[in-house]
Automatic annotation (TrEMBL):
Entry protein name: 1-acyl-sn-glycerol-3-phosphate acyltransferase
Residues annotated as domain Phospholipid/glycerol acyltransferase: 25-144
SMART domains membership: PlsC
InterPro entries in the record: Plipid/glycerol_acylTrfase
Amino acid sequence: MAPIARIIFRPVITGTENIPRSGRVIIASNHLSFIDSMVIPLVTPRRVQYLAKSTYFTGTGIKGYLTRTWFESIGAVGIERGAGQAAQDALDAGRSILESDSAFAIYPEGTRSLDGRLYKGRTGVAWLALTTGAVVVPVGLIGTQEIQPVGTRIPRVRKITVNFGEPIDVSRHGPATSGRARRQATDEIMAAIHQLSGQELAGRYNESPRPGLHGLADKVFPRERV
């Protein structure tokens, strides 16, 4: 579908040369729309996997089959939402993907930005990078919220931009067991995303009532206010 999508949406894509073609890579992006999880796999020059809520894989009938097939085809891995063990399972699923020398996509903000601002990153991305030794490629998405605004079902044809930044090695910040290391590594990643997306900074966490799967690390690790 990538060639068809590029013809229809005419995305401007920069920095694909920054993505290692093999080995452990975390694709860390801002999050503006549901469509982001389709855009990233379609424009990244290697297979990318990410977590998605398990209900996308358990539907019945023709709709359930088509939904399941679609998400499996773009590399999604089903996981239960929740705190406690569910949160740890989500982290472990991401870790397992990376330890197979694959690319894993994550939204450090934890959930979509409804006002277009860039929110403070949660530390799951740093934990994964520091635990697995993966490099982090920051991504700035621009305009995806115009393709599928919140509350709409049918995508619109709009031009978007996808900027891939230079890989970041966060190992110098310290071990994954250090809260300070996780916080500093996450802040470095978010600064790179900000530079690529040009968004206004919110200066706080995105406190959605239904946080995305990629923010579950804060259910396992307390937030570091360093």
